[in-house]
Structure formats: C-alpha cells, structure tokens
Design goal:
Blueprint: H1 2-10, H2 15-31, H3 35-42, E1 51-53, E2 56-58, E3 62-64, H4 75-78, E4 85-91, E5 104-107, E6 112-115, H5 124-131, E7 139-143, H6 154-165, E8 171-175, H7 190-205, E9 213-217, H8 223-236, E10 240-243, E11 263-266, H9 270-283, E12 290-293, H10 299-308, E13 312-315, H11 317-322, H12 325-335
Parallel strand pairs: 3-4, 3-13, 4-7, 7-8, 8-9, 9-10, 10-12, 12-13
Antiparallel strand pairs: 1-2, 5-6, 6-11
Helix pairs in contact: 6-7, 7-8, 8-9, 9-10, 10-12
Pathway: Pyrimidine metabolism; UMP biosynthesis via de novo pathway; orotate from (S)-dihydroorotate (quinone route): step 1/1
Catalytic activity: (S)-dihydroorotate + a quinone = orotate + a quinol
Keywords: Cell membrane, Flavoprotein, FMN, Membrane, Oxidoreductase, Pyrimidine biosynthesis
Length: 337
C-alpha cells in the first residue's frame, strides 16, 4: 500500500514540505489512538532480537537515524513503527534556521536524496523540554556545533549540548561528518577530533553514571583516515562508531538533481557504507561496536552490514522510499537466520 499509493502521492510534493505534513499527520493519528494500530502492524517483538550494547538494552537492532526527527518532536510516535531506538538531532546549542531553501531533493531514479539542510533545529533546550516526556523509548542524542561558531571554539558547543542533553538521552553521537556546515568536516582530522572526544570523555567522567559516546563518520574518508579513526577510538576510549553519514560523491548518479550541493543518501551509498563498516571492523579486530547506516533499502542490505561488522543498523532514506514495513522486514530476516 505504501509504495503503491502513499509514496506516489507524497512524491508529488516538495520533499521538505511533505516531511512536515507527514509529521503532523502521524502526530494527529497517534493522538486519536492509532499508535496501537501502528504497533500491531509494524512492531516485531522477540527476545532474540534484543541486543545488549554500551550497557543498554535495545529491543531490536533497527533504529531511526539522526536527521529525521531533528527536534525530538515525534520520537515517541515513530517508535510505534517498530524501531528499536530513535536518534534525534543533530542538535546545536542555539536555534538555527539552516541553509536557504530549497535544500532537500529527491533523486528518484537513484532511490536517493540530496540534502543541504545545515543543522536546522530549534536548539538543544527546546528538545530537552520534549524529551522530558519520554517514557520508555531508547533515544540517542546527535550533537553538533552552530554554523556561526568557529572551529577553534567548536568544543564548547559540543560540551553545551552534551551537558544539556545528558539526563534525557541514552547515548550520544558526535557529528563532525555532515557536509552541510562550513568546515565541519575539518574536525574529523586527527588532532581536533582527538581533543574534542577527550574533552567529552572528561565531561562524561564527572557524571555519576556516564553515557555511551559514539562518533559518526563520513563515507568519504580514505583508508588512511579510517585507520586514524581506529587509533582515535582506541586513544580516547569512546564507545563506538556510526558508519556512515551522507556522501559528497556523485559517482554513478543519473538523476536530474545530481549537481545539487549537499550530502547524498540512499541506494548509491549502500556499497560504500558497508565497505567502511567492514574496514573498521577488520582492521580494529572488532575492537568497538559499529552502527551501520547508509543505503539500507532491503532486509538483505541490513544483513550485509551486520555481516560486515555492524552490531546495529539505522534507516533514513530507505524508510522514506520503502515505507515503515521495512523495519519489520529486517527484524523478521534477522530472526529467520
């Protein structure tokens, strides 16, 4: 039904506008009691799906990636579609509108999206207000820096977000890999990244019960840079890596919007993100957990990432193109192994 009726209808409209419309619809339907119906259709529960990771219990290994529910406005309702965890953000200390519109493009022929949103969000404090209402949803907090903050002061922004969110999320993700904030990816270089992660680890150590800290990396890193990531994880003793964010590559893309600037997600990223997962896993001797994300449009895509070394997986563009039934398909495929 989704791919035959709902998706063609949604795809008639501007992608960012329909995203907000869909949020409103889900929120309204859930308030009318449809959440239970969604759960009965999409949720797959089985103790064999549970994963123990970072000291947390995930009901199943399929999560929603950051960027979909940036402001923690719909995490409770989205959990009714079968996700084992929801990652909110990327959040910044101060609200920011992001880049000028139009900034989100569908590449239908490639089953992909290009976005140059630019960390548009209402600021970390507004998200905290909504997260205080959480009852039982495992939530990750993806944090970044404001566009106007120079890189030499970036650590301060991440610390503000970390401390503001600490009591309201289950794990943290440090986002230095979005291509849509000027110079942000420079923070992936070994020296600034090590300093940033060590500072957050120091903040974490001050807490009574420290939270897991993960690093989200770009798929465009070279093998040498990925080896640096392995060294950084070992040196800073963070808890894991999310591989990968969107790509700036346009290799093999045929759609009309391929020249638009921004991060590309969807099917064209499937192979590369899996390669990165495998490289990190093999070259670190599975020293740390990896959450695999990028181009998961089928259950087989998810299983390939798990076989490559991912402990958990996340959806974003695949959720838009394939619909909420994809979550259940992946969980069923995992159980059938």
């Amino acid at each position: 039904m989704y791919k035959a009726i709902i998706r063609p209808l949604f795809f008639l409209f501007d992608p960012e506008s329909i995203h907000h419309f869909t949020f409103s619809m889900i929120k309204m339907l859930s308030s009318l009691g449809f959440g239970g119906i969604f759960r009965s259709i999409y949720v797959k529960e089985d103790p064999k799906l549970e994963r123990q990771l970072f000291g947390l219990t995930f009901k199943n290994p399929v999560g929603l990636a950051a960027g979909f529910d940036k402001d923690a406005k719909l995490y409770r309702e989205l959990s009714d579609f079968g996700f084992g965890f929801i990652e909110i953000g990327t959040l910044t200390p101060k609200p920011q509108s992001g880049n000028p519109k139009k900034r989100l493009f569908r590449l239908r022929e490639d089953s992909a999206l290009i976005n140059r949103m630019g960390f548009n969000n209402g600021g970390v404090d507004a998200a905290v207000t909504r997260l205080k209402k959480n009852k039982g949803v495992l939530v990750g907090g993806n944090i970044g820096k404001n566009k106007v903050t120079p890189n030499e002061d970036a650590v301060k922004d991440y610390v503000i977000c970390f401390n503001s969110l600490f009591d309201h999320v289950d794990y943290f993700v440090v986002n230095v890999s979005s291509p849509n904030t000027p110079n942000l990816r420079a923070l992936q270089d070994k020296a600034p990244l090590t300093q940033l992660l060590k500072t957050l680890k120091s903040e974490n150590a001050k807490k009574d019960k420290p939270k897991p800290i993960l690093l989200k990396i770009a798929p465009d890193l070279t093998n040498e840079q990925l080896l640096d990531i392995i060294d950084i994880v070992s040196e800073t003793k963070i808890d894991g890596v999310i591989a990968t964010n969107t790509t700036i590559s346009r290799e093999g893309i045929s759609s009309e919007h391929k020249e638009e600037t921004g991060g590309l997600s969807g099917k064209p990223l499937t192979e590369r993100s899996t390669e990165v997962i495998r490289f990190l896993s093999e070259n670190s001797n599975r020293a740390f957990p990896i959450i695999g994300v990028g181009g998961i449009h089928t259950a087989e895509d998810a299983l390939e990432k798990i076989d490559a070394g991912a402990s958990l997986v996340q959806l974003y563009t695949g959720f838009i193109y394939e619909g909420p039934g994809l979550v259940k398909k992946i969980n069923k495929a995992i159980l059938e192994r």
